[in-house]
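Two records follow; treat each independently.
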Amino acid sequence: MQADAIRVDGCTITPETLDNWRRGRSGIQAEVGAFLASWWSNTPTLSLQTSGSTGRPKVLQATRAAMAASAAATCRAFQLQAGHTALLCLPMRYIAGQMMVVRALVGGLHLITTEPASTPLAGMRNPVDFAPMVPMQVVSTLAQPGGRRALERIGVLLLGGGFIDSGLEESLQRLRTQVYASYGMTETLSHIALRAVNGPRRSALYTPLPGIRLSLAPGGTLQVEASYLETGLLTTNDLAEITPDGSFRILGRADAVINSGGVKIQAEALEQELQQRTGLQVLALPMPHPVLGQCVALLWEGPAEAENTLRTACAELPRYHQPKQLHRCTLPRTGSGKPARAEASSLLARLTPA
């Protein structure tokens, strides 16, 4: 099946039949129809919405050729072929959902849609070959009766858009499903690197897809170059280490560093450590300090009775890493489920006593 036709929920759609198929559609199907109308239009580029995880969301432009090249790279990486089934359970307003439609167009995949939700596999009984999900969806699915069996009806599960904590990663070791974590962003048109989360190829390092060239900027942030990216050399905000064989690990975001008395604290690493110790969702943020310049403040989400556990874990941290303030709240998140750090900083300012 070529890019002028796609199979969605058992219906074959072409540019000629799209309008008729869209009539009466709602929810995720209506959003797929709107995207296909843009894809098959005469506009030179498509608009992509960033998630706004570290700042204000913005709109980027990308060509169909670039998006198709990225989709083809994914199909090759996972050996997806025409007729394979792929699950779309992510919001269509972001790159992750849009690229699922492009992969179906380019690879001739049969797209199965379900409304984006915390438990998107509820009610599904048929197996699928390929399904991208965010970690929150997998955690929620595993917590449901029959959730593990539902996940094992997926051939390849691709996780992106959020941190995979150690508890979830260990739970995934018992799945028969092949699980991969992805690295990428809207600017790279979805993922440009993968790592196996379970199975014999399990690794803590990401491996770039063929054709992706990586380097480090002078400040230690990852730089990405790919033939299909119109931006040329893209400098990210992600601090990274690149090994001699070309694989890499992400250390955290450069804009999430807290400089406390000259000690540079990587907020995301601190969050991961506290989440692993307590099982709580936390956000570490910089707060002005009259002597240190900045200190750590912590927003956390969970039952009130868990505060003593969190305070004990914080007291065991190195001195400068210990939060000066803790605030229990509902953590701000983007529409794709990522921590909304800019919104969280505003919330912290409102919660901090004058």
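The next record belongs to a different protein.
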Amino acid sequence: MSLIPEKGLQFKVYLNKTDVLGVAEGNFPNIEITTSEVKGAGLAGSIDSPGVGQIGPMTVSLTWRSITKNITKLLNPNAHTIEMHADHQEFNSSLGIIEHTHIYVFMKGRTKNANLGNLVINDATGTQTEIEVYYLKVEINESEVVEIDKPNYIYKIHGVDYLTQVRKNLGM
């Protein structure tokens, strides 16, 4: 079977599991592993060494069609639970049919920037929200592929937690 990933077909964004936030366009957080330069005797040059599980700021940005009461809840200074459910379309070239994949992204974070947008006759407001994410979980067809939990030292990729020994060494 040869599946060809084609496109994201639809998605919805929820606040606290039940409130649909609105019609949006957005991006998933960028996972940037922090690095430090290793150089000195024994190396012919230097190496930019990634720190296992050490993740830089993860931000999700959402652009909304219009302002809603639920979107303004994101201005609350406390942490928010954001869930994205997406349907991705794939073409099964062996069977000649379209198949659908469920992408689930669960995030916890706090709003760090909000732009209420503008008013234009017969057009979207372009309201924007930027959230700093400290917890991220990604599932594809109910299979967990990524879990990053910064406060609890979890960096799990396809079921392997690469910070298990670190937590043990820290007495956690």
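Discussion point: The chain has a mean pLDDT of 92. How would you locate this feature using only the token line?
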